[in-house]
Every structure is written in C-alpha cells, then in structure tokens.
Amino acid sequence: MKIIDLTHTFTKDMPTFPGDPKPTLEQVAFIAKDTFNDHKLTTIMHVGTHMDAPLHMIAGGKKIDEINPDKFIGKGVLIDVRGKDKINAEVLENVSIEEGFVVLLFTGYGSKFRTKNYYKGYPELAEDFANKMVELKVKMVGMDMLGPDYDKPWVTHKILLGNEILILENLTNLDQLLNIKNFEVIALPAKFNTDAAPVRVIAKIS
Q1: pLDDT, tens digit (0-9, with 9 covering 90-100), for 66-119
Q2: Parallel, antiparallel, or unpaired: how do β-strands 2-5 and 86-87 relate?
Q3: How many domains does the chain have?
Q4: CA 124 vs CA 96, 128, 149: distances in Å
C-alpha cells in the first residue's frame, strides 16, 4: 500500500485570494517557558486545501459537521485536464465513473500555488460537467486550483453543492496519480460548525 498526500501544508505565510483576510499562525506557548508548546490559528475557511460544504453557496445547506462521514471516502479517478480553458463533459469520454466515486481534476495549477499566477487563468468547470457529476452521483469533486468557477453567480459551485457533492479545492501532488488505475481518496475535514473547513486529503493506492 502507498499513501500520497494531496494536501498543502498550512504555514504562517499561507497565501489567500486577493482581498481575503490573511490567516495567522503563531506559537503562543514554549516548552522552555511554559513547559509545553501551543499554537494559535486565525483563518477564514477557504484557505489552502479545504472542503466546501453545501452551506457555502446554498441557503440552508448542510455545514461540514452535519455531513455523514461516509461522504469523505470513495474510490478515486483522476482526469488529466492540463491545457484546457474550460472543463466540460467531453473530458469524461472513455472515463469510467460509478456512483460514489471521487473525481479529481489535474489542471497543473497546483505547481503555481504561492505565486500570483495561481489566481488567474485557471480553467472553469462548465455546467454540463457539473450536471454530469450530479447524474453520476459522485461524492466529491477535487481540483488542484482555486475553485470550479470565478465569480457570481457561482453556477458550478451551486450545481455541485446543491446536490451535496462536496468540493475539494487547492489540492497538490495530483501528478503522482497519473496512470494509477486503482486508488481510494480519503478527505477528512476538521469537524467545524461552518460552511467549509481545512481538510487532509490522501490517496491510498493498494
């Protein structure tokens, strides 16, 4: 068995979308002084590798802590969409996806994380792609970029979250899953009473 970590490390200089509040991560207790170490984190939820719950875009939608943990684990499939400006349903041709799968999109943008180029030019998910995910009844859609769309009215966000398909944003190391046919995705978010949460995402290759 092999484990691939698909999660960016959360550091004190964590990048955020331009205009969003900057997180802080600081050590507030030290062994030499206090006999123990401790750290304090202040952050919005949509920073680094995180999971969107329905409430993020759907009024009255479920929060992270209200989601059945069964949704956090599923057989994975990776789709290589590098070089595409728009990710539409055509990328699903010849891809076998069953109910309960986790669909991961490898855009290549994960390599630009922590650079200003990460926030522009990434491909959007088309409505027909999102609708196909609903039709196939997948559990999660994940990507190595900022999110599935750019701005209001957040159509693809709402299609996915409105059907309780969770969204994994800002993944990394998806290149390590190229040509891997059988793997399982485990994405465990912090159990926060919020619309989203930091998540540790791994791929387990048996």
Answers
A1: 999 999 999 999 999 999 999 999 999 999 999 999 999 999 999 999 999 999
A2: unpaired
A3: 1
A4: 22, 12, 5
> 140, 147, 139, 164: which is closest to 61 by C-alpha?
164
- Report CA-CA distances (Å) from 47 to 123, 127, 154, 185: 19, 25, 18, 20
Structural domain of residue 65, as residue ranges? 48-205
d(CA 74, CA 11): 28
185 close to 59: Cβ distance less than 8 angstroms? no
CATH code (residue 154): 3.50.30.50
Output the CA torsion 40→44→46→47 (10° steps).
Answer: -40
Task: Identify whether 55 is part of a domain.
Answer: yes
Q: Is residue 180 part of a domain?
A: yes
pLDDT at residue 206, as a whole number? 85
Tokens, residue 31: 């062994």
d(CA 93, CA 129): 11
Residue 39 lies inside a defined structural domain of this protein: no
Q: How far does CA 57 lie from the centroid of its chain?
A: 15
Residue with tokens 């290589």: 80
Query: Would residue 171 count as lying in a domain?
Result: yes
Answer for the pair 106, 177: CB distance below 8 angstroms, yes or no: yes
